[in-house]
UniProtKB/TrEMBL annotation:
<feature type="transmembrane region" description="Helical">
    <location>
        <begin position="413"/>
        <end position="437"/>
    </location>
</feature>
<feature type="transmembrane region" description="Helical">
    <location>
        <begin position="21"/>
        <end position="41"/>
    </location>
</feature>
<feature type="transmembrane region" description="Helical">
    <location>
        <begin position="187"/>
        <end position="207"/>
    </location>
</feature>
<protein>
    <submittedName>
        <fullName>MFS transporter</fullName>
    </submittedName>
</protein>
<feature type="transmembrane region" description="Helical">
    <location>
        <begin position="111"/>
        <end position="131"/>
    </location>
</feature>
<feature type="transmembrane region" description="Helical">
    <location>
        <begin position="304"/>
        <end position="321"/>
    </location>
</feature>
<feature type="transmembrane region" description="Helical">
    <location>
        <begin position="327"/>
        <end position="346"/>
    </location>
</feature>
<keyword id="KW-0472">Membrane</keyword>
<feature type="transmembrane region" description="Helical">
    <location>
        <begin position="47"/>
        <end position="66"/>
    </location>
</feature>
<feature type="transmembrane region" description="Helical">
    <location>
        <begin position="367"/>
        <end position="393"/>
    </location>
</feature>
<dbReference type="InterPro" id="IPR039672">
    <property type="entry name" value="MFS_2"/>
</dbReference>
<keyword id="KW-0812">Transmembrane</keyword>
<feature type="transmembrane region" description="Helical">
    <location>
        <begin position="87"/>
        <end position="105"/>
    </location>
</feature>
<dbReference type="Pfam" id="PF13347">
    <property type="entry name" value="MFS_2"/>
</dbReference>
<keyword id="KW-1133">Transmembrane helix</keyword>
<feature type="transmembrane region" description="Helical">
    <location>
        <begin position="275"/>
        <end position="292"/>
    </location>
</feature>
<feature type="transmembrane region" description="Helical">
    <location>
        <begin position="152"/>
        <end position="175"/>
    </location>
</feature>
Length: 453
């Protein structure tokens, strides 16, 4: 159970905005590669689908090692900017360059192209960790109020919605500007544009959080890895939340990787990727106040269950797209967007609660370690979404190609695209409902379950 603090710390509006703008980085970096990188490699660099899936997955697995390390470093950082903000600046100075290089390589195809993209994506994943891990640790240290954290994070989600628009609408629009499917040159322009947006967002968050309050444990946990991991194992709420986030992000990452294929081979137009993402983004931008009220009324676990049902129901309904056409696809994605908004807000609000309770219980500052582990495991597992989808394509007989060569995909490959976009993610997301029931961290004054620790 969360113990009420002596005095509630309110986060100034300017800090909420400054913190929220950092989500342009987190959502865009996850969204653009998740949406376009697999398609870019298979359809522009002639990389086999299975190998492209490995390339997308491998740098994310690297997160399992680098994210906890960055979290530990940020916990132990002492500076006039606080423990987290120096790392935001480090990420801002490195990620935009690495991201551009992922899509701006020399004229290579096949295995050499896969090796180049893989190396650049690994560098980008490392730079992203410098920003992302401390960034996610901050809300649990900004306020000591259970519901204030949800209110704070709705601002983050508004920016996530805007960043998702950039990922799903602007990025594909630029990438396909030189033709229906785009060219290598248009992908380079897209990469440069997104790199500039990343730089501005990350610097905006660094400067915008200069006045952020700092609550919780003032002293970092200086125990060794063994002691810190042992403490994590004794925190059931953190463990169940991590499993929950992993399962949900696996489904989301599969749908992201499948979206350009779904638009191209199910709806008949690669440009439909933009309108599908517009349908996804709209609810994220508009439903945050509603999800905050739902969480207050039914608690965060109840809100999460509702979000799962909406996401899974919309994904399941999208299976009927070949029968009902593009309008049906967009309506079902609209429902998915409402559910996705709730999933994201509840995940991050629950993580902030876990961090705050851990600090209050132990008297140690280890938000970075917890966030690093959570982000690393979630990122590593979610990266398998592209790999699984790549395997589904391979089983379906999908034929890789170059822009100059038209390839008519077999019916089995078209069916594989639909299954990878709808049926498999739906099964995964519905499984997360059972995991949600195991998360029992309650608000102040509510009876605690033994499962909450």
């Amino acid at each position: 159970m969360i113990t009420p603090a002596a005095g509630t710390v309110s986060v100034p509006k300017s800090v909420r905005l400054g913190y929220g703008v950092g989500s342009f980085c987190t959502a865009t970096f996850n969204g653009v590669p998740g949406l376009l990188l697999l398609f870019y490699m298979t359809n522009f660099l002639a990389v086999p689908a299975w190998l492209a899936g490995v390339v997308v997955t491998a740098p994310k697995v690297w997160d399992l090692f680098v994210n906890p390390l960055v979290g530990r470093w940020s916990d132990r950082t002492t500076s006039r900017w606080g423990p987290r903000r120096p790392w935001l600046l480090a990420g801002a100075c490195t990620l935009p360059i690495a991201f551009f290089l992922v899509f701006a390589g020399p004229p290579l195809t096949g295995v050499p192209a896969a090796l180049y993209v893989g190396a650049c994506f690994l560098a980008a994943a490392t730079a992203y960790a410098l920003f992302e891990v401390p960034y996610k640790a901050m809300p649990g240290e900004m306020t000591d109020d259970y519901h204030e954290r949800t209110s704070l994070l709705q601002w983050r989600m508004v920016f996530v919605g805007a960043a998702t628009a950039i990922s799903g609408v602007l990025a594909p629009a630029i990438a396909t500007s030189d033709g229906q499917d785009g060219t290598l040159g248009s992908y380079r322009v897209m990469a440069l544009t997104i790199a500039v947006i990343l730089l501005l967002a990350m610097l905006g968050s660094f400067f915008g959080t200069a006045r952020a309050p700092m609550t919780g444990a003032p002293e970092p946990d200086r125990g060794g890895w063994r002691e810190q991991l042992a403490a994590v194992k004794d925190n059931p709420a953190f463990l169940w939340l991590t499993v929950l986030a992993c399962v949900q992000m696996l489904a989301v990452s599969m749908m992201l990787a499948a979206a350009p294929y779904f638009a191209t081979y199910t709806l008949g137009s690669a440009s439909a990727t933009q309108t599908l993402f517009a349908a996804l983004v709209g609810p994220i931008l508009l439903t945050m106040p509603l999800w905050v009220r739902v969480a207050r009324r039914f608690d965060k676990r109840g809100a999460m269950l509702l979000a799962v049902l909406l996401f899974g129901g919309g994904t399941t309904a999208a299976m009927a797209t070949p029968l009902f056409g593009p309008l049906w696809a967009h309506l079902t994605i609209l429902v998915v967007g409402v559910g996705y908004a709730g999933l994201q807000l509840m995940q991050f609000s629950m993580l902030a609660d876990v961090i705050a309770v851990d600090a209050a219980t132990t008297g140690k500052r280890r938000a970075g370690v917890l966030t690093g582990l959570w982000t690393a495991i979630e990122s590593g597992v979610s990266a398998f979404g592209a790999l699984i989808f790549g395997i589904i394509l391979t089983i379906g007989g999908f034929v890789e190609s170059e822009p100059s060569t038209f390839v008519r995909q077999p019916d089995s490959a078209v069916a594989a695209v639909l299954i990878g976009q709808t049926a498999v993610p739906a099964l995964i997301i519905f499984a997360s409902a059972l995991i949600t029931l195991k998360y029992r961290l309650t608000p102040p004054g509510a009876p605690a379950s033994p499962s909450s620790g």
